[in-house]
Inverse folding.
């Protein structure tokens, strides 16, 4: 099973399908005292260069790390940990120590290939442990779906959409003062031609898991439409932050899927007669079109949730439906997300088991039963290969089942999500009333 990617800085399998090459494999460790070749089975760490701090390095002293201007450094994990715990005495100067510690904030951790394969095997064993097989005990398909997935920007990176965080993220490049000398550092998410993008291996594998009866639901923070394009069905996904190809009627909530990006007619269209500034995010949401449902003619809005906007309760699946699906699930796959945005990030802790796959630290690492430091494409490819083998003759439960309706912490978390939803809805209503009063006051004095 071979995965194809459109970006050269993401890993891919070799033609034989036996080795997964990361973008830095074959390079040498940037810690000069090591300077040995990085191989696929070695755990590594990547950190970004803080350009303003790099320029302050003492020219009279030779740095212990080969710093890449406007770029990234790759070290063996053991070398990284050695430097991280050295109390700065291994660095050439205090300036280099400060440069290294600034890079730690951006660190991406990569497990070695065998570790990722072992984690995939453990995850497959977990799947089979909680699956209810049919009366004939056929291993190809579980009796009912037991898995949900929570996905973030990381799963779309290999499709060509730049992430915000991470060593190559838009936000990181800005914070680290990476200038025009680096490749395409000015690329913005708004410049991405979403209609030309193709789903990644992760998108395709999740769609396959749904078809095979494993996956009951997906909650995604992405608005790129790649889950649907890969084959995830409409009834099995909540797009928490919207979909660039879908607009909806503000009155009857009917959804319209377009072949073009609808937010191009709303977000920055300040000069259009239909433009109304959103009181939450400061942008526009109206697209200038009207609902075609009989007797409605309501105004159409894009579905994009910007910073400050409340999450949709029912549009594109809605948070309420996702909460119910995650409550009923046994296993959650959290893929390519830092899990730092609430209340959506609470969803991942609702199922009994949690598998987290991400290059950077997440807010749910402490809750994870299986933690994998890898690109989601690599992990999901290995997971599918393991599931194809079917269950072992005796598949023991990998770990003790936690949570559930009788668990106090589980109930408290459910209530916390519901409360957060109510607060968002209440705030949205308050803001709407305030806006109407302001408009009425301007109109009538």
């Amino acid at each position: 099973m071979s995965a194809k990617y459109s970006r050269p800085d993401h890993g891919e399998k070799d033609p034989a399908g036996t080795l997964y090459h990361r973008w830095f494999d074959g390079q040498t460790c940037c810690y000069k005292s090591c300077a040995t070749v990085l191989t696929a089975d070695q755990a590594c760490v990547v950190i970004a260069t803080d350009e303003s701090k790099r320029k302050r390095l003492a020219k009279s002293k030779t740095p212990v790390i080969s710093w890449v201007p406007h770029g990234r450094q790759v070290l063996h994990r053991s070398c990284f940990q050695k430097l991280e715990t050295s109390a700065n005495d291994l660095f050439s100067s205090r300036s280099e120590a400060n440069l290294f510690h600034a890079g730690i904030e951006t660190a991406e951790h990569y497990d070695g290939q065998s570790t990722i394969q072992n984690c995939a095997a453990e995850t497959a064993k977990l799947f089979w442990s909680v699956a209810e097989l049919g009366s004939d005990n056929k291993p190809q398909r579980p009796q009912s779906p037991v898995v949900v997935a929570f996905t973030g920007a990381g799963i779309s990176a290999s499709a060509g959409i730049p992430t915000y965080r991470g060593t190559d993220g838009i936000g990181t490049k800005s914070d680290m003062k990476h200038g025009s000398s680096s490749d395409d550092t000015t690329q913005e998410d708004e410049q991405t031609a979403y209609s030309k993008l193709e789903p990644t291996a992760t998108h395709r594998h999740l769609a396959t898991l749904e078809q095979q009866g494993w996956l009951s639901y997906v909650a995604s923070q992405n608005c790129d439409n790649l889950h649907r394009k890969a084959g995830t069905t409409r009834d099995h996904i909540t797009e928490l932050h919207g979909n660039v190809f879908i607009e909806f009627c503000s009155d009857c909530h009917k959804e319209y899927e377009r072949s073009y990006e609808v937010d191009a007619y709303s977000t920055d269209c300040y000069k259009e007669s239909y433009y109304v500034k959103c009181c939450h995010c400061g942008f526009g949401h109206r697209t200038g079109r009207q609902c075609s449902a009989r007797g409605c003619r309501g105004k159409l809005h894009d579905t994009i949730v910007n910073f400050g906007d409340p999450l949709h309760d029912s549009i594109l699946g809605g948070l309420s439906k996702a909460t119910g699906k995650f409550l009923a699930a046994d296993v959650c796959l959290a893929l390519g997300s830092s899990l730092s945005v609430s209340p959506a990030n609470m969803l991942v802790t609702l199922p009994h088991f949690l598998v987290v796959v991400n290059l950077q630290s997440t807010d749910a690492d402490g809750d994870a039963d299986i933690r994998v430091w890898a690109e989601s494409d690599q992990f999901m490819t290995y997971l599918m290969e393991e599931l194809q083998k079917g269950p072992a003759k005796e598949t023991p439960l990998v770990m003790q089942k936690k949570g559930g309706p009788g668990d106090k912490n589980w109930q408290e978390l459910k209530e916390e999500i519901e409360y957060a939803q109510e607060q968002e809805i209440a705030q949205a209503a308050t803001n709407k009333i305030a806006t109407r009063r302001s408009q009425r006051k301007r109109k009538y004095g």
Remarks:
- The longest helix spans residues 408-444.
- The first strand starts at residue 12 and ends at 13.
- The mean pLDDT is 83.
